[in-house]
Input
Amino acid sequence: MFKNELIHMNAKSHLAKCFTDEHMFKADDKNSDDDVKVSTEYYYCNVCDVKVPNYGHNIEEHLTGRSHCSKVEKSDPTSDVNKDKQNEVAKIHYQMEPTEYSNILNCRVCQANVSHNELAISKHLMHISHMENYKIFLKDNYLVLTQENCFCIICKVDVGIKSE
Output
């Protein structure tokens, strides 16, 4: 995950706004332009790849839990644990992250392994499946790309370009 996006999504103010009636979808409602459906039965945590019952106390318990906090810290490129990897991250595309193997990167959007070379990264980023996953990622997190920035439509704040 991307640092600013994680920080913003996990902020109590964002979570509180996400689960107000005006931002809740019925199970058969559609996201704006496509057929991606949003379930209201569960809150999906992208960091842990788990579903949590869609109640404030369950979500807060998950977000403050040891396992979730540990994963957030490990995914934060500025944490002390990842200081060595931070220099590598600066040299690669912001949607990619290093893996334990120096010749393989992980796409943060698709969770797919990509060879660590410009051609492979470029091909992956331009592939239709990556673009579809990216659109879903933005919609699932209530984010909209503008020409200059990335904007959270729930909190009505700029999250920052390349920080989505």
Notes: The chain has one domain: 3-158.
